[in-house]
Task: structure prediction
Amino acid sequence: MKLPQKTLRWATWLGWQLESNWTEPWLFLIYVLVKPLTSSLLLVCMYYAARTATAGAVPVEFLPYMYVSNACYMLVWAVMFGMSYAVISDREHYRMLKYIYISPGHLQTYFVGRAVAGAAQALLGGFLNLAIGAAAFPEVRNALTRQPTEWGWLLFYMGIGTILLIVLGLILAAAVLNMARQGMFLSEGIAGILYLLCGVVFPLAVLPKFLQYVSLALPPTYWLEGMRRSLLGTPPEAMLQGPLSSWSQGEIALAVTGSTLLLGLFGIWFFHWSERRAWRRGRIEETTGA
Amino acid sequence: MRASIGLFLRTIAARAYPRIIGMRRQPSWVIHEAILPILSVASFAYVYRAMRAPEEYVGFVILGGAMTAFWLNVLWSMGAQLYWERSSGNLELYIMAPGSMMAVLAGMALGGMILTCVRASVIMGAGILLFQVPFAPTSWSMLIFTFLLTLLALYGLGMMFASVFLLWGREAWHIVNLFQEPVYLLTGMNFPLKVFPTFLATTAALIPLTAGMDALRQILFKAEGFWPLEVEISLLGGLSIVFLFLAKRLLAYLERLAREEGRLTVKWQ
Result:
């Protein structure tokens, strides 16, 4: 087996063990499901609270919009957090990063492998979350069955999304290589920024105009719009319209591919630069009690 | 007696000191402890704005964001703290020192409360400025009293967690993670509790944040509470006593158990 494949396989195995072997399988399954489900249920409760307060003026399309978007976004969070936390846990907690660095394995591939385990967990949680949402809430069920799922586009967005998330994760992991304890919060910070600016749980039109421009410069905005549209179609409700509503699937696909490519090129350069910098400054074996 | 009270108080002050002084020595907390929560507060505020919900709902989100800071502090800096201390080698020093572990926990709680009050104020201030939500407390004294009582009950729970976490290894990290989102949901962090059926709200009332935030919403926004204000205040008082009592008992029991099982010095689990 070629070395990168071997690295990927063992890093994935290690990541999965770290994620899952701390408890019994039943508790682990609850853990996988509880986090995404409760975060979606929080939005469901907000929707019902607003609907009651406005005497039913909130359109029913709002709920599936938020629910599906939030379920997809969990993947972004899991991959970004998984990769950057791998740097911190291996360097600070297990103190193994220096050994991994000097081993013949490929460092980038190792981080990708560590994130795969978290992504698999998030994917499983996401599917279960959507299934429970469809079973429990008629608004979500009706929206998912109102028109046929665009499977081709869905597969395309899942493929390009995988690349996009890996690139985002590698950029964060590279940044964390050169950071001390603040690195813990970087992925959470970026995840928070993306949650707000990509209009994960609200239409982009609600944001101030200047923030809408920033949001259109972010690849996950297009990815989320593509995922939502493949599963739910174009929202018929005027309240859910945004700057991307008039775009076709092809235009969104082109935007997400182009922006991912640009981000990928930047990511490759940034990772090598950061790795080199961390090596020169002794950051690969630095422990700060994070 | 006098000497032991003095030692107890000195231990509290000594353990609270690094938390408070850390604010000045590590100003980067502003970014991750104040600006980051504002991002999620803003996201949820925009959800209500997009749904054209009443403005007080945006206020609920801002209040929820500020109170989240206390919950996170209780989980990570109280509950999981002894686990981190063990990993960094401090726990054995605490156990060997003449000061009581209860005083160490009280110091952690006091320092955490002061530190988090500053963070929560920043979140509240920024939220009010950004979203222009009008806050008009019906009674300032009642607001302060309810807030402090909520903190007492909450940190009592945190002290209880800390002792339980003494026994855990790597699972501590996952359990803390597991306690975040479900608690945001159960306590009605961003929405009024009346969305819940009575049995669920009553169960959730075991977490001090539930009654605390509902009471604060009643005082700040004249919102309709799930229970009358007096009931919620009595509940918070009761929870404070129960949690502090349980924390003391559990700490003594679990400290002994951890000694017997040799878990006080286990690292890198």
Observations:
- Residues 121 and 186 of chain B are 23 Å apart (CA to CA).
- The longest helix of chain B spans residues 229-260.
